[in-house]
Specification:
Number of strands: 3
Structural class: alpha/beta
Organism: Salegentibacter salinarum
Strand order of the largest sheet: 1-2-3
Distance between the termini: 36 Å
GO molecular function: ATP binding
Protein name: IstB-like ATP-binding domain-containing protein
Radius of gyration: 16 Å
Pfam families: IstB_IS21
Number of helices: 6
Helix content: 40-55%
Strand content: 5-15%
CATH architecture: 3-Layer(aba) Sandwich
Shape: globular
Order of helices and strands: EHHEHEHHH
Largest sheet: 3 strands, parallel
CATH topology: Rossmann fold
Length: 124
């Protein structure tokens, strides 16, 4: 509504798009499109782990925006557990370093909104 270009996606979906573009030899096209968004919201980060190639592709893709454009990552894992997702401590440290530079961290503890809504429905 304010004229910003925003992409809302899941980590799995973005990685699938990156892999397809990579295998078709047109990774630059998706990278250019990805860089044009004012804000990218990457949801469900940490629900599925990545293989080595996937980790590297996602790292490179997210690094394109580091320090230049806004990115929101939603996850249920603390940074200390991100190595479980990426499987490589060096790559994980580099990604966390890039994503957390000049960042606003919001730790949302509490009851799930979905669970709360379900309980309200059940109590009616």
């Amino acid at each position: 509504m304010q004229g910003y270009k925003v992409l809302f996606t899941t980590a799995h979906k973005i990685l699938t798009q990156i892999r397809e573009s990579h295998s078709q030899g047109n990774l630059k096209v998706i990278e250019a499109r990805f860089e044009k968004y004012d804000l990218v919201i990457c949801n469900e980060f940490g629900y599925v782990s990545f293989d080595k190639e996937g980790s590297e592709l996602l790292f490179n893709h997210l690094s394109l925006r580091a320090g230049r454009k806004s990115t929101i990552i939603t996850t249920n894992l603390g940074f200390e557990r991100w190595e479980e997702i990426f499987g490589d401590p060096v790559l994980t440290a580099a990604l966390v370093d890039r994503l957390t530079h000049k960042v606003h961290l919001i730790n949302m503890n509490g009851e799930s909104y979905r669970l709360k809504e379900t309980k309200q429905i059940m109590n009616k």
